Amino acid sequence: MERQEIEVFLTLTEELHFARTAERLRLAPASISQTIRKLERRFGAPLFVRTTRHVALTPLGRQLRDDLGPAYAQVQAAIERTTATARGDTGELRLGYMSAAVAPRLLELVCVLRTRSPGVDVTIAETTLADLYGPLRRGEVDLSVLPLPVTEPDLTVGPVLLSEAALLAVAADHPLATHPVITPDDLTGQTFLFAQGLPEYWIDHHRPTPAPIDPVPGFQEMLAYAASGHGVAIVGAQVEALYPRPNLVCVPVAGDPTFDYALVWRTEDLSPLAATFLRHIET
């Protein structure tokens, strides 16, 4: 049976009236009659008893309705779920983020998405500084909020969600700890701490002046090294509130540099759900 034949038959079993069935399906009444006669010829027996004032199912018609109805409902449900997923109205959206500072903004946007698209499930995972692009490239997340710049041929950068001041983190007893503002000349002879695995262009963007680099395993190690006097680090202003250390001081840098955090996704693989999330941000 073709889909229209199924729809005509099942609708007529509910309405038991040819004109109302035609109106409901937006078809001509003659088309309903032709479809039913065609089915009855195919099965070799009547499906409905018709009089000028009454339409009723025959035993064969009731059997076909009972067998066909649930199966057709499952097919319709599958089509609706697939359509909703393709529109980005349902399914699972996996989000990543790097930096606790951006988490409140991200959660705010997730709440908006859940309100507008209640069929969407959202999972959120934190990304480490030493593995910025790994979760995206491994397909573990659909979108990730990452610190700029991101200049990768396989990744696309979207809207910026947060900007915060970039500060110089130094030990409390470091000579630079008492400076009101750090200038490039102040950094002569200093060694900068950066997490291992960061792209060279990312380091060059955030390093205020050319200087030696000491790679460390990750963000927490970077703070620990700086606090113990084994180098200086460029950090976001969030460090003072979220990662306070009694022996670590954060000093403003001349020129008011910032850390900007933007949504990033795989260029060739933006899912419908991810596109929906981006639309909600824009509106």
From TrEMBL:
Protein origin, superkingdom: Bacteria
InterPro entries: LysR_HTH_N, LysR_subst-bd, WH-like_DNA-bd_sf, WH_DNA-bd_sf
Residue span(s) of domain HTH lysR-type: 1-58
MF term (GO), any: DNA-binding transcription factor activity
GO cellular component: protein-DNA complex
Keywords, ordered alphabetically: DNA-binding, Transcription, Transcription regulation
Recorded family membership: Belongs to the LysR transcriptional regulatory family.
PANTHER family to which the protein is assigned, alphabetical: HCA OPERON TRANSCRIPTIONAL ACTIVATOR HCAR, TRANSCRIPTIONAL DUAL REGULATOR HCAR-RELATED
Name of this chain's protein: HTH lysR-type domain-containing protein
